[in-house]
Amino acid sequence: MSSNNNTSMPLAILQLQSAFRYSSLVLGFILLIGGVLGNILNIIVFMKLRNYKNNACSLYMFVRTFLDINILLIGLTTRILTTGFQVDFTLMNQIWCKTRIGFTDINSECTYTLICLQAIDAFICSSPSVGVRQKSNIRTAGYLVIGTVCFWCIHEIPYFIFQDLVIVGGTPMCIATNTIYAQYHTYFAALCVVTTIPIIVISIFRFLTVRRMKTIGVTRTLSSLTKQTISMALLQIFAVLVFNGPNAASLIYSLITTNVVKNIYRRAVEQPIASFIATYSYGPFSSSFYCYCLSKRFRKQLVVSIKELICGIRTNQVFPNTQRNRTHT
């Protein structure tokens, strides 16, 4: 019995690896195609309605749309090539090795910061106090967006310096040449900035906002646009929790088992699972449009925006009497 198990184990592991590799590839294409298409539609709606010029939460959503497209096109596309087709450009080009993850990290860190600001803004907008709600304004939001982008660009400068393409034992590897910075980037940037901290912040403010929104008096004092943006923000926050939770668990597990001696079979099982979770973690960058579509008002705005774009139909357009008569004739 023992010899049969030892004989069948490698085959079972190979089948598991193939299953996760295929699933990761399919999931990657779904997130890439659906995410890029959804974010383009988001841009069309925001550009047509121009709510981002007057509403802080809408501005965060609008800026995040461009960041999400960058992450999908640069981060997810190259990940699909690496995991599905074994084509890793970071091992072929030194410039790409230095810039790929750094550029992706800047966009993802900005995205999660804006999601946290979005959650905080939704909580402020749900306040029954007019004075508190006035603290959510487009001017402050603009400064926060610019500050967020500048801060994370400066934060990633060491990565572009220390990351390099080196030859280890005859094998090219794209790694950080500074051990201390590599540990900082793994344990703080990856584990805290884009996983643990956003989950904690948005969970707290989502709970507080939902509890406050259950008060009928508060809901009646809010404008329809504020209600819509709060609803859309809460839906997106829920998506972040769903997609980012497994990634946080995977990173914590890797941290706990760093010094554990693993045999070849355990590593062979953990590697495809971790790869699948890493692909799954791109979900927040692909799901915003579909979360927004759960809002009835957003769906109507989407239809109107597409009609204006394709058919040239202008809503709320008043025609002179002479033009109406000519059209009727």
Automatic annotation (TrEMBL):
Keyword Membrane: yes
Superkingdom, taxonomy of origin: Eukaryota
Listed Gene3D superfamilies: Rhodopsin 7-helix transmembrane proteins
Membrane-crossing residue ranges in chain numbering: 20-47, 59-82, 136-154, 187-208, 229-253, 273-292
GO cellular component: a single term: membrane
Primary location class: membrane
Stretches assigned to the G-protein coupled receptors family 1 profile domain: 38-246
Swiss-Prot/TrEMBL keywords: Membrane, Transmembrane, Transmembrane helix
Places the protein is found: Membrane
PANTHER family linked: FMRFAMIDE RECEPTOR-RELATED (PTHR46641), G-PROTEIN COUPLED RECEPTORS FAMILY 1 PROFILE DOMAIN-CONTAINING PROTEIN (PTHR46641:SF18)
The name this protein goes by in its record: G-protein coupled receptors family 1 profile domain-containing protein
